[in-house]
Structure formats: structure tokens, C-alpha cells
Specification:
Elements (H helix, E strand, L loop, with lengths): L4 E3 L4 E6 L5 E6 L1 H12 L3 E3 L3 E2 L2 H12 L2 E3 L3 E2 L4 E8 L2 E7 L10 H10 L5 E5 L7 H14 L3 E5 L10 H12 L4 E5 H7 L9 H10 L8 E5 L5 E5 L2 E5 L12 H15 L8 H16 L9 H6 L1
Parallel strand pairs: 1-4, 1-10, 2-8, 4-6, 5-7, 10-11, 11-12, 12-13
Antiparallel strand pairs: 2-3, 8-9, 13-14, 14-15
Helix pairs in contact: 1-8, 3-4, 4-5, 8-9
Length: 310
Amino acid sequence: MTTPIFVLGEALMDCIAQADGQLKPLMGGSPFNMARAAALRGAPATYLNPLSTDLFGQGLAQLLQKDGVALWGGSSLLPTSLAVVQVTQGQPSYGFYREGIADRDYSVDSILALLKKQAQPGIFHTGSLLLIPPEHEKVLAILAGARALGWTISVDINLRPKVAHDLPQYVQALHQVIALTDWLKASDEDLETLGFQSVTIAESGRLVRELRAGVAAAALNRVALTFGAEGAHLDVAGQTHQLPVPRIQVADTVGAGDTFWGNTLADWALVPEGAEKRVASTLELSMKAAAINCTREGCQPPTRAEVLAF
């Protein structure tokens, strides 16, 4: 039976800086991108945050629905969040405007009420900007409530140290979130900011062991680590596989990690049984999806047919 994916996290406008100084708005946000990627792969995905009634919010809602994502979060009169993105040699850097905005216009009780409406507990995904203190307190309460309801917790750290006012507090918050996580995605940059040493793909096995050493035995059953141009490592209940990045012509890397994780979650949602037996194929398809996305400007995740044809 297919498992539903419910997503909590930011939906915003990425304003991409152009060579002439103008800003080109593109829809984005890590969990927003992830939900689209999972739905385009064919998995049932639901977005839980409110979306603004402003023009940007209407566009975000239309794109989610176009890609097959269900909207359960309703609308908000608050404005859409903005990110100003500077892309240098294909790598994006961000500045965020996130006070008094629509995707933070939710409560712990409202999200748990939405989860209770779902008869079959599924995969609850969050991460990125919602993990920054003090917002993480709401997320921790939701994660604890979701686990009590029988949901599997997925987190993409997607750490944004430049946005946090207090980096040590932010790192502590992330460790609290990781302790409640079943399925975790982290990049090499995430791990370095969290304090891990010798963060290379060759050290993937050790890094996963160190992550698991700091949490309860039941947590972190599945871990994906990404290393930019070096490739990625996937561990499902101790069964592991690594792959290099496919050779492509890169437009930019915006949304690559979101596309990777969205396709990974979709693989597990569509075929819940036997994930540990297909680690290699899961990783291969997810990396192909991310590679296709990198050939396009902004986050444009591929469909299942495009991934299989790559």
C-alpha cells in the first residue's frame, strides 16, 4: 500500500540576482520543492503550511496543485516570504525575509489536527528554515505529536547558518530535531556546521555511525548524505551504497538536494516494503532526478518518466 507524504516547511519566492542587477522571481523553499519532486515522481504528497492570499502565494498554490500536491494548510492574509539568491559558479547563496509571513502562520494544534484527519499515518517531512530557533520549538512539539500518532519522521536539515542569530543555539536545536528523526538527509555543509570532522564521501560510513551514536536506537533508520560534486551515500538499516554525480551541463544547483530527497521519499512511499534491498536503485534514480534538475534554472524537478529515461 502506498504511504502518504505530508510536508511542513517554507514556501517562498527565490529572487535570483541577474547580471544587470535585476531580480528574477522563482518559486522555491526547500520543503515546497521537496513536495513537488515527490509528487512528480508519483507519490501522494500534501503540503500543510498556509499560503498567502497575495499574488506570490496564489502562484505557489497553483504550482503545487499543477504538480499534484494536495493543499491542506489553507490561506493566510500575511505576505509570502522572500529569499534573495546570488548564484556564483552555479552555487547559490541566500538572504531571507521571513518575519510575519504566511508559511509561519500555523500552530502546533492546527498541524496535529491535520495529521489526525489522515486515517493511515505516513511520512511526515520537515526541515530547513523551520528548524531555526525559536520556530524549532513548534516543530519539536509537532514531531513529538506526530511520532505519538504513528508517523515516520523525515528531516532534511538544509542548515542556514547565516540566517540564525545564535549559531550554537541553532546547532543545539538541530540535534534535538535529529533525535526525533527516523529518516535524515544532510549535506556535507550541514555536517561541518554541526561539528563533524573529515566530512568527505570516503568517510560516509563513519559519519552515519557518529550520527546514530548520538540518538536513541530506534532513530535514524535511514540516512542520506550528499557531498556536492563528490556524490552521495545512502544507508537503509545498515545496507549502504555510494554513487558519483552524473555528468551533466549544470545550469545551477538550486533545489538539487530537495529533488534528491523528494525522489528518495517517493521511492519509499510508493514501495514501502524492502527498501533495504534496493538501496542502489533508490540512490541511482534520486541522483538522476537531481542531475536533471541541475540542468534547469531554479528548482524544476523532473517527472518519473524523465527520470527513467535519463
